[in-house]
Amino acid sequence: QVEVVESGGGLVQAGGSLRLSCAVSGAVFGLNTIAWYRQVPGQSRDFVAIITKRGATNYAGSVKGRITISRDSARNVIYLQMNSLKPEDTGVYYCNREESWGQGTQVTVSS
User: Fold this and answer.
1) d(CA 15, CA 91)
2) What is the dihedral of CA 15, 19, 20, 25, to 10 degrees?
3) Within 10 A of 43 (CB to CB), how many other CB atoms are there?
4) Within its chain, how far is the Cα of 9 from the centroid?
5) DSSP string for the chain
6) What is the pLDDT of residue 68?
7) Rounded distance, CA 51 to CA 105, Å?
8) Which tens digits make up the pLDDT trace of 70-91?
9) Which of 24, 31, 64, 101 is the most exposed place for a label (fewest CB within 10 A)?
10) Nearest CA to 3 among 57, 58, 77?
11) Cα distance between the two ends of the chain
């Protein structure tokens, strides 16, 4: 079994920064491909960022230049550094590894 746990969410003002963490544990051989998604209540869960096992990254167009995904492979931790945050970045952020999802961490950006 694989467990995924997100943390680091909170309330920040527009223009501020926040770093989310995704800890992966259990029957895991390496981090594999890890992705972050965001969901607003009543809306779909949308892709935000991804990092492959070999370190390649990709981002949703709305966050390019403001958000960076990175990893600490030795600790099985993935980070999502968010800068210049906007109110539209508000939502519950989920970490995904293959079929495993965490419970999400709330990010709220005030105007």
Assistant:
1) 16
2) 170
3) 9
4) 10
5) -EEEEEE--EEEETT--EEEEEEEEES-SS--SEEEEEE-TTS-EEEEEEE-TT--EEE-TTTTTTEEEEEETTTTEEEEEE-S--GGG-EEEEEEETTEE---EEEEEE-
6) 98
7) 19
8) 999 889 999 999 999 999 999 9
9) 64
10) 77
11) 41
Contact 20, 69 (CB under 8 A): no
The answer, yes or no, to whether residue 31 has pLDDT greater than 90, is no
CA angle 64, 51, 76 (to 5 degrees): 130
**Measured between alpha carbons, how far is 76 from 59 in angstroms, rounded to an integer?**
21
